[in-house]
Amino acid sequence: MAFARSRQALAIAGVLGLALGVTACGTGNDKKSGNASKPECAPYAKYQGHDGKKVTIYSSIRDIEADRLDQSWKQFEDCTGIDIDHEGSGEFEAQLGVRVDGGNAPDLAFIPQPGLLKRFVDSGKIKEVGADTKGLAEQNFSPDWLKYSTVNGKLYGVPLGSNVKSYVWYSPKTFKEKGWSVPTTWDELITLSDKIAASGTKPWCAGIESGDATGWPATDWIEDVLLRTQGVEVYDQWTTHGIPFNDPKVADAVNKAGTILKNEKYMNGGFGGVKSIATTSFQEAGTPITTGKCAMHRQASFYANQWPQGTKVAEDGDVFAFYFPAVDPAKGKPVLGAGEFVSAFADRPEVQAVQTYLASGEYVNSRAKIGDWLSANKKLDINNVPNPVDKLSVQILQDPKTEFRFDGSDLMPAAVGAGTFWKGMVDWINGKDTTTVLNGIEGSWK
């Protein structure tokens, strides 16, 4: 889920580079006929034969990120003659089902929730990926990533973008001025929060408003804390309903997250008290860090897209991020993350061509160069990733020792993960007790 910043020069450089590539392969006026004969279009030779065809894509990606998507496949369009029509929506999760059930499905959808993907597979709506796409996906992604879009042994989606969620954003400049140290354990994190609160600044800011998807940022808190208190095995049991949603281990994690999220001394810098979290958009939630009204904001790597224009993201910059500290060092350093999967509702040749291209090394490196994006694709060259937080995330994702776990609410059945869990977290922030909330979610799963 997911603005420009002082790395504007990098973004401009990426755009100029793409513009030069497009010029070399032909102008937009030539797109309908393709430009396969141009030497610069050689990487797209395998996708030829679809001049003038249109492929529609629907996703939750919008604003500047949607503009960057359009840039990332512009050369592909010009070299193949395929017109990619992307639409991003803040109501994606709810509206995709409406469109599919109403016979108006997009050709492709970028689905962030494996549980939602499975729902469409079970209803016979999503097409199994073609042989070319599957072969490329198996070359470029680890089995762990492919299993999230595999149902009954068949692959129904290809990973696209990825993100690391186990980050806390802060201002290196402010921390240096105040003499605050980056915490490496949970106890240090709480001690720091108390110190900042005592100084008169709210240590935390948060927001979980996200249109029809309101509540999801709070579920990330619960997942990250559960990984840190119980470890990956219990986490896996929870996401598959091997243990009930209201298990005492889960309740303990929710209450531990509540020591920060529901603490009026800590929340909600720049916006108000705890209840303001429910009405603060996730896009705006961390911005008080840049004005000194808040010290820390737990959010994923993709939040680099949300900082006000002119904000420098770097270790010595206006904002940066540190690893969300472990609670129990014996549990290791698990990493929570997520991503989108490219799934097809149509199997026309041009649709398969686009789906295959999006799984390629050519595509992921084209998109990465534009900035503020990463992928678990093995062909991604870290030198093409300009954002230092994204570089760190790529290293984490490509490290075989990383205990990576996919976003839990995305793994659960859509009615729970993107339904009662999201809603339950809103109720919890607004004052409902943990037991009542978890019992309600558990009842919905049954």
Automatic annotation (TrEMBL):
Residues 1-24 form the signal peptide. Gene3D superfamilies: Periplasmic binding protein-like II. Keywords: Signal, Transport. The keyword Zinc does not apply. Pfam families: SBP_bac_8. It comes from the Bacteria. The keyword Transport applies. Belongs to the bacterial solute-binding protein 1 family. This is Carbohydrate ABC transporter substrate-binding protein, CUT1 family.
